[in-house]
Design goal:
The chain is of the alpha/beta class and 433 residues long. It has 3 domains: 47 residues, Transferase, Pyrimidine Nucleoside Phosphorylase, Chain C (Transferase, Pyrimidine Nucleoside Phosphorylase, Chain A, domain 3), CATH 1.20.970; 235 residues, Nucleoside phosphorylase/phosphoribosyltransferase catalytic domain (Pyrimidine Nucleoside Phosphorylase, Chain A, domain 2); 90 residues, Pyrimidine nucleoside phosphorylase-like, C-terminal domain (Aldehyde Oxidoreductase, domain 3). The protein has 16 helices and 13 strands. It has a 4-stranded mixed sheet, with helices on both faces. Strands 6-9-11-7 form a 4-stranded antiparallel sheet. The protein has a 3-stranded antiparallel sheet with strand order 10-8-12, with no helix packed on it. Helix 1 runs parallel beside helix 3, helix 5 packs across helix 12 and helix 9 packs across helix 10. It is globular.
Length: 433
C-alpha cells in the first residue's frame, strides 16, 4: 500500500477502504508518511468530502492512535459536553459542576483559545494555582472522588488529531465537516464516556456561520457517536451575539460563578440549564428533559453546584475564593464605547467582538501567543436592547494602550444602532438526536 495511491483515489472522488485510512493515519503518526503527503490527502478530503463510513473509520483510527480511557470501574454514568466554539462561551464552567452535583460523572478534556474564540483551559488558568495538566491517574482519581475534572489534552491522547490539526491549521483545510467531526469525536470518545451533548454554534461568531453547514456538522457527529454505541444529542445554538456580558478569561470565570450563585446573565443561565438537562437525561438521572432542567435549576438554587465547583477547583490546585476578589479582573486601563444616538442595539458581526478581545490579549492569533488573563470586554447592552444617547455599550479593559485602540476600532464595527427593535433570536434553534 502506498500513500500516493490513497491520495490519488480520494483526489478522484473515490471511497477509501478501512485498510487505506488506517494505513495512512498510522503512517502519519509514526512519521513514515511526511507532512506534504498528509497535507495533500487533507486537501483532497476538504474538496471531495467523505462518506459516513469513511468518517467513522477515520474517527476510530484517530481515537486509537493513543490512550483511550477506561472508566468502567466507575459505576455512575459518564457524560461530557462539547462546544464548537464561540465568543463569550463559558458554558462548560458552570455546566460541569452542576451536572456532577446531580450524580453524573463529567470527564471533560477541553481546548485553548485560537483566533476569535475563547478557550476553556485559558479561562480556568486565570484561577491562581489551577492545574489543567493532570496525569491520567490524577484524572481518574478526580472523577472517582469529586465526580468532575476539566483538563487539557495530554501527549498520549489522540496524537493523530494533534498532528493533523496543526497541519490543517496551516493548509486552509480546517472548515471540513468530516475532518472537524473526526477531530472532535475522536477526542471525546477517547474519554471513556457513555454519552455526549454537542453544542453546535451557528452565526457570525461561529466557525460554521451558515445554518445548513452547522446542521450537517451536528448530524455527522451524532451519527458517528451512535455508530460507537454512544448516546448523543446535538443542540444547534445561536452565536450571532456573544454569550453573556463578559468576554475574556478571568471575567468569564467570574460570570460563570455568578451563574452558579443564581445571579448570572439570562442567556448563559438558560443555555447551561438546557445543556445540563440533556446530560442528565443521557446519564439516566433525569426521566425527561423537563425533569433535567428542574434538577439543574435546583442545584443552582440550593448551592450544590457552587459547592461542587469549589471542590473541583480546589482538587485541581486552584483557589475559588480568589475569583471573588476585586483584583481577579483588575486591569491598568478601562475605556467605554458609548452610543452616539438613541435606538436599539443591533449586533451585526460577533466575529469582530471576538477579534477585539483577542487583540487585547484574551486570545491567540498564533498557538505560541501568551494570554493576558485579566483583559477583556463587558457588554453593557445586548442585541435588541433599548439605548439612549451616551449609554455605555462596551466597557474595554486592557493593559496596553495601543492594543486597546485597535480593539476599540474592531468593536465599533461590530454593531449599529437602529430605529426599530430588531427581531429576537432563539437561543436554541434545533435539537438533533
Amino acid at each position: 500500500m502506498r500513500a500516493v495511491d490513497i491520495i490519488r483515489k480520494k483526489r478522484d472522488r473515490e471511497t477509501l477502504s478501512e485498510e487505506e485510512i488506517e494505513f495512512f493515519v498510522k503512517g502519519y503518526v509514526e512519521g513514515t508518511i511526511p507532512d506534504y503527503q498528509a497535507a495533500a490527502l487533507l486537501m483532497a478530503i476538504f474538496l471531495n468530502g467523505m462518506t459516513d463510513g469513511e468518517a467513522f473509520v477515520l474517527t476510530r483510527t484517530m481515537m486509537h492512535s493513543g490512550k483511550v480511557f477506561d472508566f468502567s470501574s466507575i459505576s455512575a454514568s459518564k457524560v461530557d459536553k462539547h462546544s464548537t466554539g464561540g465568543v463569550g462561551d463559558k458554558i462548560s464552567l458552570p455546566l460541569a459542576p452542576l451536572v456532577a452535583a446531580n450524580g453524573v460523572i463529567v470527564p471533560m478534556i477541553s481546548g485553548r483559545a485560537l483566533g476569535h474564540t475563547g478557550g476553556t483551559l485559558d479561562k480556568l488558568e486565570s484561577i491562581p494555582g489551577y492545574k489543567t495538566d493532570l496525569s491520567p491517574e490524577e484524572f481518574e482519581k478526580a472523577l472517582k472522588t469529586v465526580g468532575v475534572a476539566i483538563i487539557g489534552q495530554t501527549e498520549d491522547i489522540v496524537p493523530a488529531d494533534r498532528k493533523m490539526y496543526a497541519l490543517r491549521d496551516v493548509t486552509a483545510t480546517v472548515e471540513s465537516i468530516p475532518l472537524i467531526s473526526a477531530s472532535i469525536m475522536s477526542k471525546k470518545l477517547a474519554e471513556g464516556i457513555d454519552g455526549l451533548v454537542l453544542d453546535v454554534k451557528t452565526g457570525t461568531g461561529a466557525f460554521m456561520r451558515k445554518y445548513e453547514d452547522a446542521k450537517k456538522l451536528a448530524e455527522t457527529m451524532v451519527a458517528i457517536g451512535k455508530s460507537f454505541g454512544k448516546k448523543v444529542y446535538a443542540l444547534l445554538t445561536d452565536m450571532n451575539q456573544p454569550l453573556g456580558r463578559a468576554i475574556g478569561n478571568a471575567n468569564e470565570v467570574r460570570e460563570s460563578v455568578d451563574v452558579l450563585l443564581g445571579k448570572g446573565p439570562e442567556d448563559v443561565t438558560n443555555l447551561t440549564i438546557e445543556l445540563g438537562a440533556y446530560m442528565l437525561f443521557i446519564g439516566n438521572v433525569a426521566e425527561s428533559i423537563e425533569d433535567g432542567k428542574n434538577l439543574i435549576k435546583k442545584a443552582i438554587e440550593d448551592g450544590r453546584g457552587y459547592e461542587k465547583w469549589c471542590e473541583m477547583v480546589r482538587n485541581q490546585g486552584g483557589d475559588p475564593d480568589a475569583i471573588l476578589k476585586e483584583d481577579f479582573t483588575k486591569t491598568k486601563y478601562v475605556e467605554e464605547i458609548k452610543a452616539e444616538k438613541g435606538g436599539f442595539l443591533s449586533i451585526i458581526d460577533t466575529f469582530k467582538i471576538g477579534v477585539a478581545a483577542s487583540i487585547l490579549g484574551a486570545g491567540r492569533a498564533k498557538k505560541e501567543d501568551k494570554i493576558d488573563h485579566k483583559v477583556g470586554l463587558y457588554m453593557h447592552k445586548k442585541h435588541g436592547e433599548k439605548i439612549e444617547e451616551k449609554d455605555v455599550i462596551f466597557e474595554v479593559r486592557g493593559n496596553d494602550p495601543e492594543k486597546m485602540k485597535e480593539a476599540i476600532k474592531w468593536l465599533k464595527e461590530s454593531f449599529i444602532i437602529v430605529e426599530a427593535k430588531p427581531e429576537a433570536r432563539p437561543l436554541v434553534y434545533e435539537v438533533i438526536s
